[in-house]
Design goal:
It is built from 14 helices and 15 strands. It starts with a strand and ends with a helix. α1 runs parallel beside α7, α3 runs parallel beside α5 and α11 packs across α14. α2 links the parallel β2 and β3. The strands form 3 sheets. Strands 2, 3, 4, 5, 6, 7, 8 and 13 form an 8-stranded mixed β-sheet that branches. Strands 10-12-11-14-15 form a 5-stranded mixed β-sheet, with helices on both faces. Strands 1-9 form a two-stranded antiparallel ribbon. The protein is globular, with a radius of gyration of 21 Å. With 367 residues, it is of the alpha/beta class.
Length: 367
């Protein structure tokens, strides 16, 4: 079925199609339409919508719902994403599947509530405390708001981790035709055996620990405090904490090549544009207009697709577009120079405006 949807509406349609049964959130521009549509549509699908008092309570409620066996999601923007950071860290430590949508707007602080930006990409990876890895996806169209929302739920369930959908505010508020798929491949979390499981934090061969669920016959003790493999708190033994941190990081790092999604256009070009989200559309338009340009678009921002990028940019000039004053460009420089790129140039865009084709043409020297 093909429909003409707002980005935020497409996200809600996809979340419900993915099996989301619980939403907790606090309205904040430019993500508010997600809460509005969830309040309207989720109860019709047998789910529960709760408007919480703030974003701290929102993510905490989602964590609780997930441990009760439900697929859960929250959505926010700007300051709300900052408030969620402690909860994100708790979800990482307790290996709780859930999806967080961040419709990015201009910051710091209240900034430009109604304008799009890409300032939160590093906060998505480093915003909480301690060592951890995260999965974050970046849509460049309303169709991808639909497709990547489903992907976010699947990755979250598969790897027992919070997954972040990082959409700039323009994608959230853009209206485009969307292929609303009815047949969707869904991944469900691997459940623990009912009853007493002594080694509750023992991972299987794929690095994932089977998930116990409150109320389904599993014996569950869950805490953000470092625990040993039997679930007992262990806060002073270095070997226990190291084992926990290595496992929650390695299940992402060692599966990075399976998680990566990216697109490459005209990989043989000598000049490669790097862009994600909305700026990728301007990059692709310029590349298609001028045959000597290529585009590398990471769809998975975290884990960063370092090896595929390196293979494309080796010996070439790299041009980075971002709607911020320098975030992912540092990661590009690290990976590109390591792979042997000639140079990396950066064109920031601030103030809630997007890159024009003319600006990009001038930036890469074809105008």
């Amino acid at each position: 079925m093909r429909e003409f949807l707002l980005g935020n509406e497409a996200c809600v349609r996809a979340a419900i199609a993915a099996g989301c049964k619980f939403y907790a959130g606090y309205p904040i521009t430019p993500s508010t339409e997600i809460a509005e549509a969830m309040a309207r549509e989720l109860p019709k699908a047998g789910g529960t919508f709760i408007q919480m008092e703030d974003e701290i309570a929102s993510i905490s409620a989602c964590i609780g719902a997930s441990w009760a066996g439900l697929k859960a999601m929250s959505a926010t923007s700007g300051p709300g994403f900052s408030l969620m950071q402690e909860g994100i860290g708790y979800a990482v430590m307790t290996e709780t599947p859930l999806v967080i949508v961040n419709c990015m707007r201009g910051g710091p602080s209240t900034g430009q509530p109604t304008k799009p930006a890409q300032g939160d990409v590093m906060q998505a990876k480093y915003g909480s405390h301690g060592d951890y890895e995260i999965i974050a996806l970046s849509p460049a169209s309303v169709q991808e708001m639909f497709d990547l929302t489903i992907e976010a739920f699947n990755l979250s369930e598969q790897y027992r981790t919070p997954v972040i959908l990082l959409a700039d505010g323009e994608i959230a508020h853009m209206r485009e035709p969307v292929n609303v798929r009815e047949e969707i491949k869904l991944i469900q979390r691997k459940l623990a055996k009912p009853g007493i499981v002594k080694e509750v934090w023992k991972a299987e061969e794929d690095g994932i620990v089977p998930f116990p669920v409150f109320g389904r016959g599993h014996r569950v003790y869950i805490s953000g405090t470092t625990s040993d493999i039997y679930g007992y708190p262990s806060t002073v033994k270095p070997e226990v904490h190291e084992a926990v941190v290595r496992r929650i990081c390695d299940k992402i790092r060692k599966n990075a090549s399976r998680i990566w999604k990216y697109e490459v256009y005209n990989a043989d070009a000598k000049k490669i544009l790097f862009a994600y989200g909305l700026p990728a559309r301007a990059a692709l338009a310029v590349a298609k207009k001028h045959g000597n340009l290529g585009v590398f678009r990471p769809i998975t921002l975290w884990p960063f697709p370092e090896r595929p990028l390196g293979e494309v940019v080796k010996g070439k000039e790299v041009y980075v577009l971002e709607m911020n004053y320098g975030k992912m460009v540092a990661e590009v420089e690290r990976a590109a120079y390591k792979a042997g790129a000639k140079n990396v140039e950066f064109l920031p865009k601030l103030g809630g405006e997007i890159h024009s084709v003319e600006e990009v043409e001038k930036f890469v020297g074809v105008r």
